[in-house]
Amino acid sequence: MEETNENQLEEARKRKLIELKTKQLLLQVLDNTAYERLMNVKIANEDLYTQIVNLLLYLYQNGQLKKRIGENELKNLLSRVLSKKEDNKIKFVRK
Protein backbone atom coordinates (compact mmCIF):
# COMPACT_ATOMS: atom_id res chain seq x y z
CA MET A 1 0.00 0.00 0.00
CA GLU A 2 2.78 2.40 0.93
CA GLU A 3 4.70 1.46 -2.20
CA THR A 4 1.80 2.37 -4.49
CA ASN A 5 1.49 5.69 -2.70
CA GLU A 6 5.16 6.39 -3.37
CA ASN A 7 4.77 5.36 -7.00
CA GLN A 8 1.80 7.69 -7.39
CA LEU A 9 3.76 10.54 -5.82
CA GLU A 10 6.70 9.87 -8.13
CA GLU A 11 4.42 9.84 -11.18
CA ALA A 12 2.82 13.10 -10.06
CA ARG A 13 6.28 14.68 -9.66
CA LYS A 14 7.29 13.51 -13.13
CA ARG A 15 4.11 14.93 -14.69
CA LYS A 16 4.61 18.23 -12.87
CA LEU A 17 8.23 18.43 -14.08
CA ILE A 18 7.18 17.75 -17.67
CA GLU A 19 4.45 20.40 -17.43
CA LEU A 20 6.98 22.90 -16.06
CA LYS A 21 9.51 22.21 -18.83
CA THR A 22 6.77 22.45 -21.45
CA LYS A 23 5.59 25.78 -20.04
CA GLN A 24 9.15 27.15 -20.06
CA LEU A 25 9.63 26.10 -23.67
CA LEU A 26 6.29 27.57 -24.74
CA LEU A 27 7.12 30.87 -23.06
CA GLN A 28 10.42 30.85 -24.93
CA VAL A 29 8.85 30.03 -28.31
CA LEU A 30 5.58 31.99 -28.16
CA ASP A 31 4.96 35.65 -27.50
CA ASN A 32 2.54 36.58 -24.70
CA THR A 33 -0.64 36.83 -26.78
CA ALA A 34 0.05 33.54 -28.55
CA TYR A 35 0.74 31.85 -25.20
CA GLU A 36 -2.56 33.15 -23.81
CA ARG A 37 -4.42 31.89 -26.88
CA LEU A 38 -2.79 28.47 -26.54
CA MET A 39 -3.86 28.29 -22.89
CA ASN A 40 -7.43 29.06 -23.99
CA VAL A 41 -7.17 26.23 -26.51
CA LYS A 42 -5.97 23.95 -23.71
CA ILE A 43 -9.10 24.72 -21.72
CA ALA A 44 -11.40 24.23 -24.70
CA ASN A 45 -9.75 21.29 -26.49
CA GLU A 46 -7.03 19.29 -24.72
CA ASP A 47 -6.30 17.11 -27.78
CA LEU A 48 -5.73 20.10 -30.05
CA TYR A 49 -3.49 21.68 -27.40
CA THR A 50 -1.41 18.51 -27.21
CA GLN A 51 -1.05 18.36 -31.00
CA ILE A 52 0.08 21.98 -31.21
CA VAL A 53 2.54 21.61 -28.31
CA ASN A 54 4.03 18.49 -29.90
CA LEU A 55 4.33 20.32 -33.22
CA LEU A 56 6.02 23.30 -31.56
CA LEU A 57 8.42 20.99 -29.69
CA TYR A 58 9.30 19.24 -32.93
CA LEU A 59 9.91 22.52 -34.76
CA TYR A 60 12.00 23.87 -31.88
CA GLN A 61 14.14 20.73 -31.56
CA ASN A 62 14.85 20.70 -35.29
CA GLY A 63 15.84 24.36 -35.32
CA GLN A 64 13.02 25.39 -37.63
CA LEU A 65 11.81 28.22 -35.38
CA LYS A 66 13.86 31.31 -36.17
CA LYS A 67 11.81 33.76 -34.11
CA ARG A 68 9.07 33.78 -31.51
CA ILE A 69 5.67 32.79 -32.81
CA GLY A 70 3.01 35.47 -32.64
CA GLU A 71 -0.73 35.12 -32.33
CA ASN A 72 -1.31 35.18 -36.10
CA GLU A 73 1.21 32.41 -36.74
CA LEU A 74 -0.37 30.35 -33.97
CA LYS A 75 -3.81 30.87 -35.53
CA ASN A 76 -2.40 29.60 -38.84
CA LEU A 77 -0.97 26.51 -37.13
CA LEU A 78 -4.28 25.88 -35.39
CA SER A 79 -6.25 26.19 -38.62
CA ARG A 80 -3.85 23.86 -40.47
CA VAL A 81 -4.10 21.21 -37.74
CA LEU A 82 -7.88 21.54 -37.63
CA SER A 83 -8.23 21.30 -41.42
CA LYS A 84 -6.15 18.10 -41.46
CA LYS A 85 -8.33 16.72 -38.69
CA GLU A 86 -11.50 17.41 -40.68
CA ASP A 87 -10.07 15.66 -43.76
CA ASN A 88 -9.84 12.39 -41.83
CA LYS A 89 -13.57 12.18 -41.14
CA ILE A 90 -15.49 9.39 -42.80
CA LYS A 91 -18.36 10.52 -44.94
CA PHE A 92 -21.29 8.30 -45.73
CA VAL A 93 -23.02 8.87 -49.04
CA ARG A 94 -26.46 7.39 -49.20
CA LYS A 95 -28.19 6.54 -52.45
Structure overview:
The chain is an all-alpha fold and 95 residues long. It has one domain: PDCD5, DNA-binding domain (Helicase, Ruva Protein, domain 3, Orthogonal Bundle). It has four helices and no strands. The chain has helices at residues 2-29, 32-44, 46-61, 71-87. Helix 1 packs across helix 3, helix 2 packs across helix 3 (46-61) and helix 2 packs parallel to helix 4 (71-87). The mean pLDDT is 88.
Task: Looking at this protein, list some descriptive labels.
0% strand; mainly alpha; Helicase, Ruva Protein, domain 3; flat
Q: Secondary structure elements and their pairing?
A:
Layout: H1 2-29, H2 32-44, H3 46-61, H4 71-87
Helix pairs in contact: 1-3, 2-3, 2-4
**Average pLDDT number:** 88
Radius of gyration: 17 Å
Cα distance, first to last residue? 60 Å
Show unreliable segments: none
* CATH C-level label: Mainly Alpha
Q: What's the helix-strand series?
A: HHHH
Shape: flat
Helix percentage: over 70%
Briefly note the CATH topology name.
Answer: Helicase, Ruva Protein, domain 3
* Tally of separate helices: 4
Share of residues in strands: under 5%
Question: What's this model, at a glance?
Answer:
This protein has four helices and no strands.
